[in-house]
Design goal:
Two copies of one chain form a homodimer. Chain A is of the alpha/beta class. Chain A is built from ten helices and 15 strands. In chain A, strands 6-5-4-9-12-14-15 form a seven-stranded parallel β-sheet, sandwiched between helices. A three-stranded antiparallel β-sheet of chain A has the order 1-3-2. A three-stranded antiparallel β-sheet of chain A has the order 10-11-13. In chain A, strand 5, helix 7 and strand 6 form a beta-alpha-beta unit. The radius of gyration of chain A is 19 Å and the shape is globular. At the A-B interface, helix 7, strand 6, strand 7 and helix 8 of A face helix 7, strand 6, strand 7 and helix 8 of B. Chain A binds a DNA duplex through helix 3.
DNA sequence: CATAGCAAACATATTTTCTGTTCGAATCTC
DNA sequence: GAGATTCGAACAGAAAATATGTTTGCTATG
């Protein structure tokens, strides 16, 4: 369908302008207002923008984490590259816990056809792994956060505390040598911490942009990580600082 | 699509005959052999029948439980009627644990728009409940059984043991006053037992046919149930026997 | 190694989805 | 509360996706 391009165009235009009228969007996309309205309804449902009478505004610019659906379509190729690199670092037969988030979801997809024991920490990853024939899928308990579907809460912590994994794949919102691995959501941060505590080896995944960002909740100091997989446009200074802490950094 | 009718026709024909050749099926459905082959591939993937060179055979007649995909399309209307009756018995605000299986999946769907706390014991039910705005969804841990996606194992038992529910909705493979509530799968039976143990009230759901059937694993004696919801064609003798044990029986 | 069965490739048919228009109802502005 | 704008349901036509059947060359099985 070609409508997906128009959706992207609308999201980008709204994001750039902050807010736009239906009429303006109809003109820019070269479609009718009715089509734009239908698109906006759809996009608003996914939390990609906010609808108001006459137009729509961006949900960003609020300091919050952008919604899952938005991040899921952003930088797909980059995430797949990182995921492939992580998959190379995992040996057959390992027990792996995979964090929530879009980058970790890419990792889950990359591991789906492998012979592994996997515990995903989000229902998105679960759905990606269900039905994989060689894979032993282990679900943690917990409450799925809307949209994100990240499992959190005492049930999740208890599930993690009862197990010992070979490797934890951890996503993040920010990661610097100075401020450590950070997340927006406090409940998520607690789970990441528990996952790190129950794994022998910790691999963090972080696109370059995250290496110059710090979020609210501290998960762990950077030295707690064994490896970081990032992109080749990661800032040298930060990469060197991480290496100085004994973290293996892989740029792909 | 009209192909779904043909699929059903193929499944029924194969089930009745035990096995059938591609040529025979092509003639019966009035389509080409190529179409039949494509259908068989699809159906075999879902575990609805078994493919062999030249034809397909039924997966039933093995004493095992028929595959989930097969039961899911069987007696849909009956299951929805039972589910609606169960939904009436649940008050807003309750905490409910919902067992795996197709009948319980119907119950989950019927409860999706209610204001409740729900813990589903299968990923099918999870998917039906995710995104429900008023519902507080609680996931148990565990290993999803292929196809069924029923969560089982020590993680599931631990999740249940940590909680107390107002009501448990339990499905079954067989239920009689004499032999109690029984299941095909041993791991499932253990989970059902744990769910019953952590709920104040236990409602069993069972289409009429199950009231004259007994499966391998005993879950609980019939007296452990508070209510049974069944269909109006349930055998009177069995219904009376259940009532004599103090079980409230509702026929819909 | 012969033969029935199979799957890829393609053209066609069918269904589904998408889009734009119209029109009455709902909502905002002054 | 009047006037204007926006909205959404309904429908018809357009576009896209899917399903089907035929051909052709390959594969497995006895």
């Amino acid at each position: 369908m070609a409508s997906v391009d128009r959706h992207r165009q609308i999201i980008d235009a709204v994001r750039r302008a902050g807010q736009l009228s239906v009429a303006e969007l109809a003109e820019r996309t070269g479609t009718s207002e009715m089509t734009v309205r239908r698109d906006l309804e759809l996009l608003a449902e996914q939390g990609l923008l906010e609808r108001y009478r006459g137009g729509a505004r961006s949900v960003l610019l609020r300091g919050e984490e952008p919604p899952f659906a938005l991040r899921a379509t952003d930088g797909v190729e980059v995430k797949e590259r990182i995921a492939a690199a992580v998959a190379e670092m995992i040996a057959d037969g390992e027990a792996v816990v995979i964090d929530a988030g879009t980058t970790c979801l890419a990792v889950a997809r990359a591991l789906a056809r492998r012979r592994l024991t996997v515990m995903p920490l989000s229902l998105h990853a679960t759905n990606a792994l269900v039905g994989a024939p060689q894979l032993r899928l282990l679900m943690p308990g917990g409450e799925p956060r809307p949209g994100e579907l990240a499992l959190t809460g005492p049930l999740t912590e208890a599930s993690l505390a009862a197990l010992r994994f070979d490797t934890a794949i951890i996503g993040c919102c920010g990661l610097t040598a100075a401020n450590g691995l950070t997340a927006y959501d406090l409940a998520d941060a607690a789970i990441k911490r528990a996952a790190i505590a129950s794994a022998h080896r910790v691999i963090a995944v972080a696109e370059a942009a995250k290496l110059s960002r710090t979020a609210l909740a501290l998960v762990a100091p950077a030295a707690a990580l064994h490896a970081v997989v990032t992109t080749d446009d990661a800032p040298d200074a930060e990469v060197d600082a991480l290496k100085a802490l004994g973290v293996a950094v892989r740029r792909v």
